[in-house]
Design brief:
Elements lengths: L1 H40 L8 H10 L7 E11 L7 E7 L2 E4 L10 E7 L5 E8 L6 E9 H6 L7 E6 L5 E12 L9 H17 L12 H9 L3 E7 L5 E7 L2
């Protein structure tokens, strides 16, 4: 009897074994595909080699050299009233986002490296959710036409488009092209000062040459003083702090 039961169970066990083997093969294939996709996505573009990049520019296939850019995200306008919202930016390999805020008062700065082959900056207006984020309106900016040729717009409100191409809120943004690298070890105030100096130089079409290593402490203080604007605190005579509003000249 036991032998008969074993013989009847053998086909079932074989079928289960085949099913488990098939599932294992599918998982392995998916893992290999994901690995290949990651390698391909992170593979350098030929134009990232400077000599080849020059050929792309001369042939007219690309219009800009690689550069660093800071996007100042100010605030949203005409946004949905329900939920907390954030902006998601995608440019080439870069993907950055703001924090979620129900009133869309982001006031954040995001840094991007724009490759020579990058042509679009995509921005998504996201609503944060408990389980998943909801993506509705979006905006696509052309790196050459909307940013470079527009001299990197400042304080401009951009309209998002939702379903059926309907207007779905605005976001006020500023784009700043960074000449060279801003040292990551610099203090936030010094980084802001260098950004402000680059903005001022760009608006006046004047060359800018900042070398922190060669600047004296007095020169650094003067550079920071030109950027100090906003709420500050001053110590009163009895040791307490009181808010003041100062713009150093």
């Amino acid at each position: 009897m036991a032998t008969l039961a074993f013989r009847m169970a053998c086909p079932c066990l074989a079928a289960v074994g085949d099913a488990v083997g098939s599932v294992g093969c599918l998982i392995a294939a998916a893992a290999v595909f994901a690995l290949l996709w990651t390698l391909i996505a992170n593979m350098p573009h030929p134009s990232e080699c400077r000599c080849i990049g020059d050929l792309y520019i001369k042939a007219g296939w690309h219009k800009h050299y690689p550069f660093n850019m800071v996007v100042e995200v100010h605030h949203g306008e005409q946004y949905p009233t329900k939920g907390s919202h954030f902006l998601l930016f995608r440019c080439g390999r870069n993907s950055e986002r703001t924090t979620a805020d129900p009133k869309c008062q982001w006031h954040q700065r995001l840094k991007f490296h724009v490759r020579q082959c990058d042509k679009k900056l995509k921005i998504f207006f996201m609503t944060a959710g408990t389980i998943k984020n909801t993506e509705v309106p979006s905006l696509e900016l052309d790196i050459d036409d909307d940013l470079c040729e527009q001299n990197f717009p400042k304080q401009r409100a951009y309209q998002f488009k939702g379903k059926d191409n309907r207007n779905a809120g605005k976001a006020k943004l500023s784009f700043i092209k960074i000449e060279g690298e801003i040292p990551s070890e610099a203090t936030p105030l010094m980084q802001q000062a260098m950004l402000r100096a680059q903005i001022d130089a760009g608006e006046s079409d004047e060359p800018l040459n900042l070398d922190l290593e060669k600047m004296t402490e007095t020169d650094k203080l003067r550079l920071c003083a030109r950027c100090i604007t906003g709420p500050l605190e001053k110590m009163a005579a009895f040791g307490s702090w009181r808010p003041v509003f100062v713009k150093a000249q």
